[in-house]
């Protein structure tokens, strides 16, 4: 599709290919394999399997439409879809690295990503050094001759710390490392890392791209050379492939992504400001607030503050803090007590005892995750209703 179209147009139309029936909405191709008219055609198509449809572990037309659309939204040349966000991370590492290689990563990572680097890749001789994402000197100091990858997640979960994508990209380039940014928390509607120097954007499409909490999905976007020549051979062979059904759901998710992201951000800001003014709230962490230490960077790097915020309730001792935080959760009637983010429904969690309970108390303290901390992923309900719902437990 014409690259000159703007984001909202691409989100609705990019990648669409019609069959001879001229269906208006994208067709869902639930088929594991594709037929050939002759032995010679089969031979030809198997030889060039990236250009033809042969088998859905390799390629599928609905998945291709998803890939083309997401590549257009991120401003990348090519995209490979995967079964989940985690299988996208598996695929990029398998595509780019081998035993003996080294990753430099921000230390504030999604829990399973941390587990993948520390417990799984380490068994195959791939080591990781974790750095404070804000400390540029730490990124430089962590580089070794065998460093092959930089990995960044921004804003961080749950503290909403930002990593300067462009500045870290310069260090990655100087190190000759492939630079991967997990853009799950923002989506391309809010942040486009390829334009800031990332080599590869990784997604858990499970979150904002679906946006309605239905299916799992993942993706990698980058140059044609890297995606088609390095990632595609791994995904085609190993099979962490996205299902056609999930691709079809996620195509529909992308059509409303920009609208949803705008509303998520606007409501998050309303809730963050309301919390900041509340007498039993100690601190609020949200990149759209002027009080956020990296507010200026957020304005440069993101179109808006995003859909995730965190806040601390008051409390003298850790026990009191936990009691006060849990009281907020237990008095909600609207918010869902679940860890998903980027959903139409607002979700609330106590990171110290759920998503971040398995890391050591020292690592938790270093990350700033106290017993007083709550994380809210603001949904599409009325923002005043969300504030009132949080207020029930805060006012007691
Ligand atoms: C959810 C998530 C993942 C993992 O994605 P799945 O689709 O659950 O496999 C990776 N990174 C971030 C930032 C996430 O929120």
Automatic annotation (TrEMBL):
The modification N6-(pyridoxal phosphate)lysine is found at residue 207. Pathway: Amino-acid biosynthesis; L-methionine biosynthesis via de novo pathway; L-homocysteine from O-succinyl-L-homoserine: step 1/1. The keyword Amino-acid biosynthesis applies. It holds the Pfam family Cys_Met_Meta_PP. Keywords: Amino-acid biosynthesis, Methionine biosynthesis, Pyridoxal phosphate, Transferase. Its cofactor is pyridoxal 5'-phosphate. It is an enzyme of class 2 (transferase). It catalyses: O-succinyl-L-homoserine + hydrogen sulfide = L-homocysteine + succinate. GO terms for biological process: 'de novo' L-methionine biosynthetic process; homocysteine biosynthetic process; transsulfuration. NCBIfam families: O_suc_HS_sulf, PRK08133.1. HAMAP family: MetZ. Belongs to the trans-sulfuration enzymes family. MetZ subfamily. This is O-succinylhomoserine sulfhydrylase. It comes from Trinickia symbiotica.
């Amino acid at each position: 599709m014409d690259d000159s179209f703007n984001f909202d147009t691409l989100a609705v139309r990019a990648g669409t290919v019609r069959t001879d029936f001229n269906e208006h909405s994208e067709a869902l191709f639930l088929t594991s394999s594709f037929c050939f008219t002759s032995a010679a055609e089969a031979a030809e198509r198997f030889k060039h399997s990236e250009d033809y449809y042969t088998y859905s572990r390799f390629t599928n037309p609905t998945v291709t439409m998803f890939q083309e659309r997401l590549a257009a939204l991120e401003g990348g040349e090519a995209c490979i879809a995967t079964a989940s966000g985690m299988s996208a991370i598996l695929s990029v590492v398998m595509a780019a690295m081998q035993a003996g290689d080294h990753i430099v990563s921000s230390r504030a990572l999604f829990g399973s990503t941390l587990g993948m680097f520390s417990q799984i890749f380490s068994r195959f001789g791939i080591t990781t050094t974790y750095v404070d994402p804000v400390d540029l000197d730490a990124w430089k100091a962590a580089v070794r001759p065998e460093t092959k990858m930089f990995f960044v997640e921004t804003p961080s979960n749950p503290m909403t710390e930002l990593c300067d994508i462009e500045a870290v990209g310069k260090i990655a380039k100087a190190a000759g490392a492939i630079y991967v940014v997990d853009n799950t928390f923002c989506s391309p509607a809010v942040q486009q890392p390829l334009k800031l120097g990332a080599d590869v954007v990784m997604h858990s499409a499970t979150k904002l791209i679906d946006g309605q909490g239905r299916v799992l999905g993942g993706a990698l976007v980058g140059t044609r050379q890297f995606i088609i020549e390095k990632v595609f051979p791994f995904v085609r062979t190993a099979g962490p492939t996205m299902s056609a059904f999930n691709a079809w759901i996620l195509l529909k998710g992308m059509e409303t992504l920009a609208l949803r992201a705008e509303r998520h951000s606007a409501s998050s800001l309303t809730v963050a400001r309301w919390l900041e003014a509340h007498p039993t709230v100690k601190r609020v962490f949200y990149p759209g607030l002027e009080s956020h230490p990296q507010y200026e960077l957020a304005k440069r790097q993101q179109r808006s503050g995003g859909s995730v915020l965190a806040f601390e309730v008051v409390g003298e001792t850790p026990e009191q803090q936990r009691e006060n935080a849990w009281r907020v959760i237990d008095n909600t009637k609207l918010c869902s007590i679940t860890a998903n983010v980027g959903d139409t429904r607002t979700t609330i969690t106590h990171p110290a005892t759920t998503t971040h309970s398995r890391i050591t108390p020292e690592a938790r303290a270093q990350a700033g995750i106290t017993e007083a901390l709550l994380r809210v992923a603001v949904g599409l309900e009325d923002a005043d209703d969300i504030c009132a719902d949080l207020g029930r437990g805060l006012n007691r």
